[in-house]
């Protein structure tokens, strides 16, 4: 009887140690001290110049950054750049984003036209794909004559592309003279934080002695901005099975997929 009690006690201690190790091994970015909803970070367009022709790459964009907390990171079409004055641009739409040291963001979508051409992309409408399904679409509204639409290298005279999965797509529109404008579009899965992911995180991760706000060394996952700041880590750890911690029930594959789709959408407050 005594031997059995010792074994049970040791198993209980082991379970506590595994839980402690799992929570304490969650290292990485510091806990954010600011809710990004209250951030004054702002990206402002100062000026643009058009490309001098359809085939030229001499358009420019000049932006300004105010507020937030330096240092800033600047991205053009998801690629890091160093300056707020951007040159060497061909006709098309350009997504510019600034990220401050708190992880807060602001962005602009700016069109560079070509002098002497009426060709332009006026609007791009996307619909969601669903998580791990291909039900999304992209509709391109453009101005010009004899237009050809190209999505990731696939040409069509139809301005609507269907059966698209979650992800980024490259768009080009060419008119009958050969003038071309380009843009990018993002098809989101549409997975919702408030109705789908929040409950998974709070039930399985924001638990006693772990991410419930009781320990200063760990981010409180009851706060959305903390989850957003650690979204890539959460995605990686749930995919690998290292989160939730030992001693907690495993997530279902559907729950793991929903977290991944939400993170890949940009960890939105939706």
C-alpha-based Rg, rounded: 24 Å
Number of DSSP E strands: 14
**Model regions low in confidence, pLDDT < 50 over at least 5 residues:** 1-22, 27-32
Overall outline: flat
Residues in β-strands, percent: 25-35%
* SSE string, helices as H and strands as E: HEEEEEEEEEEEEEEHHHH
Main beta-sheet strand count, sense and barrel state:
4 strands, antiparallel
- Cα distance, first to last residue? 55 Å
In DSSP terms (H or I, runs of 4 or more residues), the helix count works out at 5
Quick check: average pLDDT? 86
Strand ordering within the main sheet: 4-3-6-7
Helical residues, percent: 10-25%
Classify the secondary structure makeup into a structural class. Answer: alpha+beta
How would you describe the overall organization of this protein?
- The N and C termini lie far apart (55 Å).
- Strand 8 and strand 9 (136-143) form a beta hairpin.
- The protein has a 4-stranded antiparallel beta sheet, with no helix packed on it. Strands 11-10-13-14 form a 4-stranded antiparallel beta sheet, with no helix packed on it.
- The chain is 23% helix and 33% strand.
- The radius of gyration is 24 Å and the shape is flat.
- The chain has helices at residues 2-24, 193-204, 224-229, 231-240, 253-264, and strands spanning 42-49, 59-66, 73-76, 79-81, 85-89, 92-99, 105-112, 120-127, 136-143, 148-151, 154-156, 160-164, 167-174, 180-187.
- By secondary structure, the protein is an alpha+beta fold.
- It contains 5 helices and 14 strands.
């Amino acid at each position: 009887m005594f031997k059995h009690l010792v074994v049970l006690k040791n198993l209980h201690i082991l379970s506590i140690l595994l839980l402690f190790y799992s929570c304490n091994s969650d290292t990485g970015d510091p806990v954010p001290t600011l809710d990004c909803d209250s951030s004054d970070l702002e990206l402002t367009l100062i000026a643009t110049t058009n490309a001098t022709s359809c085939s030229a790459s001499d358009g420019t964009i000049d932006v300004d950054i105010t507020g937030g907390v330096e240092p800033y990171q600047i991205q053009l079409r998801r690629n890091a750049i160093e300056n707020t004055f951007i040159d060497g641009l061909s006709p098309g739409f350009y997504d510019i984003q600034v990220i401050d040291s708190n992880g807060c963001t602001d962005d602009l979508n700016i069109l560079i036209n070509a002098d002497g051409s009426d060709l332009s992309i006026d609007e791009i409408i996307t619909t969601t794909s669903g998580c791990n399904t291909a039900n999304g679409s992209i509709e391109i509204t453009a101005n010009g004559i004899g237009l050809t639409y190209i999505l990731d290298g696939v040409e069509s005279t139809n301005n609507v592309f269907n059966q698209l999965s979650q992800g980024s797509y490259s768009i080009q529109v060419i008119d009958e003279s050969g003038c071309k404008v380009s843009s990018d579009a993002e098809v989101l899965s549409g997975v919702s934080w408030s109705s789908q992911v929040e409950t998974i995180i709070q039930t399985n991760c924001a638990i006693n002695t772990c991410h419930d706000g009781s320990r200063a060394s760990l981010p409180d996952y009851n706060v959305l901005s903390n989850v957003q700041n650690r979204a890539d880590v959460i995605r990686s750890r749930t995919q690998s099975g290292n989160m939730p911690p030992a001693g907690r029930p495993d997530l279902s594959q559907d729950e793991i997929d929903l977290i991944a789709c939400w993170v890949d959408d940009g960890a939105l407050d939706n």
